[in-house]
Amino acid sequence: MATAALTRRGMFARPRATTGWWSWVTTIDHKKIGILYGVTAFVFFLIGGVEALFIRLQLARPDGQVLDAELYNQFFTMHGITMIFMVVMPMGVALMNYFIPLMIGARDVAFPRLNAFSYWVFLFGGIFVYSSFFLGGAPDGGWFGYAPLSRTLPGHGMSYYSLGLQILGIASLAGAVNFIVTILNMRAPGMTFMRMPVFIWMSLVVSFLLLFAMPVLAVALFQLMFDRLFGGNFFNPAVGGDPLLWQHLFWVFGHPEVYILILPAMGIVSEVLPTFSRKPLFGYAAIVFAGVAIGFMGWGVWAHHMFAAGLGPVANTAFALTTMFIAVPTGIKIFNWVGTMWGGSIRLTTAFLFAVGFVAMFIIGGLSGVTHAFVPHDAQQTDTYYIVAHFHYVLFGGAIFGLFGGLYYWWPKVFGRLLGERLGKLHFWLYFIGFNLTFGPMHIVGLQGQPRRIYTYPENMGWDLWNLVMTVGAFVIAVGTLVFIVNAVLSRKRGEEAVADPWDGRTLEWTTPSPPPEYNFSDVPLVTHRDDFWHKKYARTPEGEPVRVFAGAEHADDDEHHHGIHLPSPSYFPALAALGMPFLGYGTVYKILPAMIVGAAILLLGLFGWGLEPSVEE
Asked: Rounded to a whole number, what is the distance in angstroms from the first to the last CA of the chain?
């Protein structure tokens, strides 16, 4: 009887917390978890930005003295790891977490506790990697970790790299499985695949990419861990190991990873542009299938990162062709976005400006990317700042601009208040100007031969002025970030209160109050059209002009009909289980058996309690 009672109540049961810090530790509400993901990713964005400013200060003038070579290597490695694994990926996951259930008419994700586990693993994984700064030195072999250098570098930095990315990868896999099941099985009645918002489509593609790409990286990281800590020889050429094996494994993950980073932003832009152009998305089916095509074709281009590795003319030619072909679905998306804006009744909001900035900057990054399909061109520039310019135009001018567009667009839905438009537009123009000042000249110095991954350079190379301009641009971006923070703080204190549908939106999330209740929908919606909410608000005149039928805010769900809705119960076991992972990591890095035992015990205790806990409060 005692065991049965324990199972019903859950181990170490305590009352449900609805406010305060404990409510955030125990929450399994997808909306709160989305906020936690977003805030944590933004903190890492600030940290990665500070690292970038130090890098630019070091390179602002010849023979810089701001950082020594060792610390510079740690900063540029951690900047890359942070921005890719701790900022752009989780920021997209934050928006997916919050809005997938709302946009498909569901009350939560399929596995709420797994969702919480994903966040806590991400948080503890990021803390684990960054703790290396205080425990003998951070990773210093580049975010790409090329072997055999990464297996022989002294210190523990690259061991933290191999284990930390594995922990972060577990978070990504947990989230991917959850999103796939949620989208496939929990759509509202009537929401067929071709009625799903494009953001949901891109989230589905990204989730499948994560599901298949992260295990490939995990294999490479396990091999690197065994090479560094247990005398393995996977990448040791002296005894028959193959350093190129690391490159193949890493880039088989790494190029789908590019689309993992950019596709959420493409989905956001596909929601923002129709709303503020007051037009349906032009070529919905083409954009959807182009996104799916990008997901498939992304697996066939990895070796264009290896044109200087000596793969031979046959392999180089094959991957040059696939690199050219993958530009086609991307071009389709761009033409459809332009077609959406063409002839529309455009409102120049901050969200719209960031979406247009995404399209413009991504075009530049895409064009410089296509030039790398030419093997001689790539081989000459692969280790220069031309490459740095290319991937920042794709991942900052693309992904970051798109994500900020999503933040300005959905902020009132999440927090119930609008961000200030004046400060928002100042933020956009500071980012736009600072971004092009920082990364535009990198094309020039790259073509002039400035190598990547150098911590200083001599005078009279012709790079002095451009590096100073780049550093000024980086600080302009920093000022833009401060403007956003000020805007967010002012919005929370005295921002304009948001109605349910402040932008005259098209999709289901705008049918809920701002912010939505914990249960999302008092009645699960019935979907009859693509852009269903738009069709409920508007009818068409004989001339084809939309005429408002009723105000969308009048039909927002309220708190009067939520009785009888059973919600999953909060739990601290996902956080407890995740807490065991860094202890396992520390024990492995330093070969301390007691730490490994403690980590395994915490992990197992968390999973045991999780398994016994009832899924719904009685």
From this structure: 17
Position with higher pLDDT, 63 vs 7: 63
The DSSP letter of residue 309 is S
Domain boundaries, the chain: 32-568, 569-618
Q: pLDDT tens digit string along 51-81?
A: 999 999 999 999 999 999 999 999 999 999 9
- Determine the Cα–Cα distance for residues 307 and 67; give it in Å rounded to an integer: 32
415: closest CA among 30, 22, 24, 31? 31
Calpha distance 298→251 (Å, rounded): 11
The one-character DSSP state at 538 is: E
Distance of CA 7 to the CA centre of its chain: 37
Q: Which of 125, 28, 83 has the alpha carbon at shortest distance from 403?
A: 83
Residue 551 has pLDDT above 60, yes or no: no
Give every CB contact of residue 244 below 8 A, 6+ residues apart in sequence: 306, 309
Which tokens sit at 184?
A: 């496939």
Beta-strand (E) ranges in 59-143? Answer: none
Q: Which residue has the tokens 């969308």?
A: 552
pLDDT over 60 (residue 601): yes
Q: How many of the other CB atoms lie within 10 Å of CB of 117?
A: 28
Distance of CA 97 to the CA centre of its chain: 11
DSSP, res 548? E
Question: Which residue matches tokens 């129709």?
Answer: 274
Strands 538-540, 546-548: pairing kind: antiparallel
pLDDT at position 372: 86
Whether residue 148 is preceded by a cis peptide bond, meaning omega within 30 degrees of 0, is yes
How distant, in Å, are the alpha carbons of 54, 252, 274, 427 from that of 430? 20, 36, 25, 5
495 vs 272: CA distance, rounded Å:
21
Q: What is the CATH number of domain 32-568?
A: 1.20.210.10
Name the amino acid, one letter, at 459: E
pLDDT of res. 18: 66
Compute the Cα dihedral for 134, 137, 140, 145 and give only its sign: negative
- Residue 464 CA, chain-centre distance (Å), reads 34
Quick check: helix, strand or coil at residue 241? coil
Which ranges of 278-400 would DSSP assign to H, the alpha helix?
284-297, 313-325, 327-341, 350-371, 375-381, 385-394
Tokens representing residue 375 in the block: 């093997």
Backbone angles phi, psi at 502, to 5 degrees: -70, -25
Classify the C-alpha dihedral 95-100-101-102 as positive or negative.
Answer: positive
Identify which of 407, 420, 401 has the alpha carbon closest to the alpha carbon of residue 354: 401
- Cβ contacts of 93 within 8 Å, gap of 6 or more: 37, 118, 172, 175
Predicted pLDDT at 418: 96
Is pLDDT at 174 greater than 50 in this prediction?
yes
Q: Which two tokens stand for residue 270?
A: 């596909």
Contacts of 16 (CB under 8 A, 6+ apart): 26, 569, 570, 617
- Per residue in 423-447, pLDDT (tens digit) is 999 999 999 999 999 999 999 999 9
Rounded CA separation 65/62 (Å): 9
Phi-psi category of residue 505: left, alpha or beta, with phi > 0 → left and psi -120 to 50 → alpha = beta
Q: If you write DSSP's letter for every residue of 447-465 in order, what string do you get?
A: HTTPBSS-S---SSSS-HH
Report yes or no on whether pTM surpasses 0.85: yes
Mean pLDDT, the chain, rounded, equals: 92
Question: From CA 131, how far away is CA 139, in angstroms rounded?
Answer: 11
Average pLDDT over residues 305-330: 93
pLDDT of residue 553: 42
